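Example 9 (inverse folding). The structure is encoded as follows.
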């Protein structure tokens, strides 16, 4: 069963799951008070970026983290900042040390595997202090140094962040699939119980066809980053945005813009499509399949997933799609809605606009049948991720959430209909309607 979390107007959530499910969450809200860590997606940013704009990844001009801290009690809610274009392995490493404290160690064998691309095992500039009173190097303070099995956390992740937290849980409990990584704390395994739950929002568990769609249309990642900064820039001037690629020797200067950084480093091996230690690989269907082969659903964790859909079936005259970019429509395909955020519209429908030769996400088919099979079930999307990919990693245990969560299985909450990829994190939305989404999520997590 596929069920939707509807809205009557932009961001107005009308929850259509069983009322008993919501009641159960509300009545059990005091069952735990473990900290929540918010993990951003591809091209995302942390709370110390976008300076001068007052724009946040989690909430846009609203503040989801601050709201969650005081919803039905007082809670600890932290916002992480990991590599916006890095692989899920690297992002998981950074997330671990950012929460626990210490200096990032990307693993001896993993580093050797990608040394030809410039990988560094223990780069400078990726450290967090566990003790603020013993911090001679003035590192950023770790989010929750007491983190362990007796002090677990809830991980709430958007987009690629969902792949990242799954990777972290796998490494925590089972260590590296490569064996000894040089003794790094993350790779020893045995850290069962450190994560109470993982909630993924619009995550490409099986990848997104957007990667292939935009490969020729938007070959430079700086263009997409620029669109995000353009949205954030509505609230101020000179936002600061960084790529955090010190592990590849690509440190961005303190006053260097991302466009200047890309121009300076565009010949670096990291950006090569042959580099499988990057987000550009992990986010495609093939990369996600490779990740899912070793990152499994833990029997010790409560997993939740929620989706989004911002396209509609084509119609010759009457629907809520953007008729300017898609005046002629076929009922076989999906098209971008009028209210979808502007920089995803051109790739979400049947064609990549203004091209008439490149198929968009709403009709995507691939030329190589030996790869992951993509069919019309993948056409519906939120502008960035195919809705079908948001439910569960293929082949892993899943069920529809009915108010009673099951550990070791993906509890699917349904999808927000008419919501694009950034609606679900509150970009450009009202505070009340954005916060209603996270009230629901918070109620579930604190009810476990």
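The amino acid assigned to each position is listed next.
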């Amino acid at each position: 069963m596929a069920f939707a979390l509807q809205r009557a107007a932009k961001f107005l959530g009308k929850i259509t799951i069983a009322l008993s499910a919501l009641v159960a969450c509300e009545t059990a809200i005091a069952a735990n008070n473990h900290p929540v860590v918010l993990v951003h997606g591809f091209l995302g940013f942390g709370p110390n970026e976008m300076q001068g704009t007052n724009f946040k990844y989690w909430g846009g001009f609203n503040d989801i983290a601050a709201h969650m801290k005081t919803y039905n009690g007082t809670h600890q809610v932290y916002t992480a900042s990991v590599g916006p274009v890095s692989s899920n392995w690297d992002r998981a490493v950074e997330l671990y040390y950012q929460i626990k404290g210490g200096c990032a160690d990307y693993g001896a064998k993993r580093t050797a595997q990608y040394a030809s691309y410039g990988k560094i095992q223990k780069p400078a500039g990726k450290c967090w202090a566990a003790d603020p009173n013993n911090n001679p190097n003035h590192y950023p303070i770790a989010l929750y140094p007491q983190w362990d099995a007796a002090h677990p956390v809830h991980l709430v992740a958007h987009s690629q962040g969902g792949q990242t937290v799954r990777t972290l849980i796998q490494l925590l409990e089972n260590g590296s699939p490569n064996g000894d990584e040089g003794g790094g704390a993350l790779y020893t395994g045995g850290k069962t119980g450190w994560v109470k739950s993982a909630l993924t929002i619009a995550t490409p568990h099986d990848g997104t066809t957007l990667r292939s769609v935009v490969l020729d249309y938007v070959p430079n990642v700086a263009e997409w980053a620029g669109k995000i900064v353009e949205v954030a820039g509505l609230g101020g001037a000179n936002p600061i945005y960084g790529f955090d690629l010190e592990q590849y020797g690509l440190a961005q200067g303190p006053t260097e813009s991302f466009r200047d950084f890309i121009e300076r480093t565009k010949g670096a091996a990291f950006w090569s499509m042959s580099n499988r230690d990057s987000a550009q690989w992990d986010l495609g269907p093939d990369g996600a399949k490779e990740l899912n082969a070793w990152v499994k659903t833990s029997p010790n964790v409560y997993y939740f997933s929620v989706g989004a859909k911002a396209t509609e079936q084509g119609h010759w005259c009457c629907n809520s799609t953007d008729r300017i970019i898609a005046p002629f429509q076929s009922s076989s395909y999906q098209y971008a809605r009028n209210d979808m955020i502007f920089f995803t519209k051109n790739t979400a429908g049947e064609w990549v606009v203004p091209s008439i030769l490149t198929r968009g996400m709403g009709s995507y088919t691939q030329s190589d049948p030996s790869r992951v099979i993509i069919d019309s079930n993948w056409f519906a999307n939120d502008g960035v991720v195919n809705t079908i990919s948001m439910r569960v990693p293929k082949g892993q245990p899943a069920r529809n959430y009915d108010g009673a969560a099951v550990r070791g299985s993906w509890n699917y909450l349904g999808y927000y209909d008419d919501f694009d990829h950034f609606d679900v994190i509150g970009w450009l939305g009202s505070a009340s309607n954005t916060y209603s989404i996270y009230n629901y999520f918070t109620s579930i997590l604190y009810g476990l």
